[in-house]
Amino acid sequence: FKRDAKKNYLSLLTPAWGEVLNCLTNDIPLPAKYKDHALTGNHKGFRDCHIKPDLVLIYRVQSDTVDFVRLGSHSEVFD
């Protein structure tokens, strides 16, 4: 995730990233505009949300921890 975050650094300097981060770290449901949903198949147990139309965050919530897994365009994170 660190490499993905560095690559997309400028995209993270937005109010949308702050809102997503706040919701995920405080166990608040994400607003519908982020299209948050559970993944299936090989990615079962993970979720994704769209911070921007082509900026996808893959993450996993386990008890009181949020693991950020991938960040990038849809084609990058699901390649």
Automatic annotation (TrEMBL):
Tagged with keyword Metal-binding: no
Family matches, as NCBIfam families: RelE_StbE (TIGR02385)
Any one GO BP annotation for this protein: translational termination
Organism listed in the record: marine sediment metagenome
Gene Ontology molecular function, alphabetical: RNA endonuclease activity
Gene3D superfamilies, per the entry: RelE-like (3.30.2310.20)
PANTHER family per UniProt: MRNA INTERFERASE TOXIN YAFQ
SUPFAM superfamilies (alphabetical): RelE-like (SSF143011)
Cytoplasm as UniProt keyword: no
Keywords, in A-Z order: Toxin-antitoxin system
Name this polypeptide is given: Uncharacterized protein
